[in-house]
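Entry for the shared binder. Reason: the reviewer on the internal report wants the predicted structure included alongside the sequence.
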Amino acid sequence: MITDDLVAEAIKTVYDPEIPINVYDLGLIYLIEIEDERNVKINMTLTSANCPFAQQIPVEVREKVLQIDGVEEVTVKLVWDPIWGEEHMSGAARLELGLL
């Protein structure tokens, strides 16, 4: 069975190339939705609209989630509302970056 936690663990293997933190803990993932027990929708943002890896990161997120047994389709949508800020980061990510 595909769960939000299973999807989150897959996403945690994707890192922002400019920041040594995975995109999940950076707070870039706004929504994980599992439909029909095999299709996954993800809404995510980037740290900046000018992110040089704007094409690469969503593709990598999609590819990692597709590797989960039972997942047939993954749709990753980039959203810009709300705008990303440090408050979206996990406590572990803030600690690692010296923000706590």
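Summary line for the report: Residues 4-84 form a domain with the GMP Synthetase; Chain A, domain 3 fold (CATH 3.30.300.130).
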